Amino acid sequence: GAVVSQHPSRVICKSGTSVKIECRSLDFQATTMFWYRQFPKQSLMLMATSNEGSKATYEQGVEKDKFLINHASLTLSTLTVTSAHPEDSSFYICSARSYSGGASAPQETQYFGPGTRLLVL
Amino acid sequence: GQNIDQPTEMTATEGAIVQINCTYQTSGFNGLFWYQQHAGEAPTFLSYNVLDGLEEKGRFSSFLSRSKGYSYLLLKELQMKDSASYLCAAWNSNYQLIWGAGTKLIIKP
Prior knowledge:
The complex is a heterodimer of chains A (121) and B (109).
Chain A: E1 4-7, E2 10-13, E3 19-25, E4 32-38, E5 45-51, E6 57-58, E7 67-73, E8 76-81, E9 90-98, E10 109-112, E11 116-120
Chain B: E1 3-5, E2 9-13, E3 18-25, E4 32-37, E5 44-49, E6 53-57, E7 60-65, E8 70-75, E9 84-91, E10 97-99, E11 103-108
Parallel strand pairs in B: 2-11
Antiparallel strand pairs in B: 1-3, 3-8, 4-5, 4-9, 6-7, 7-8, 9-10, 9-11
């Protein structure tokens, strides 16, 4: 199946600093990428939809000035957590919608990156 | 509103078969996904159904009935490594994924 990578996999930072997380689609072009947050033992919560070449669409309750999303190319989207605080500590996961696929895979689906675990001290 | 319902937790025995059900209500529908998520890891894709019927892929099969707003994931010959959460998610008309809370599957020897 398609591969999505995320970097870094883990990050520990001090309160007040900014953290950038990269999401890359390695073997396909993704016009649309998604950013999720997941707290322990809870389901995925969609934060925003990232569209290549345009502004991201944020879900209700997600601060766009705090969670900056840039989708500059068809294979890269970045999420920057600005002025991070301990309550921002979470598991951040990106996914990319793929429209490619062979006979053994559906023509379009959504693949997830491995996630980035953020701990703000 | 839009929502996905699936059982919170299920228990099964190694070597047995288990069926995880999912019902959905979405504004429009463009397909249903099943993902597997092990603790501390991101979800991994298992299946995608957009047409009615059963899709078989090795030990895992997924079924969809669009008229009933219903899907199930069938796992055969259960192995201990199948212990995980199984997430049901549906694409609505805007291709937004609507997520269920996940079903935690516990496999006992």
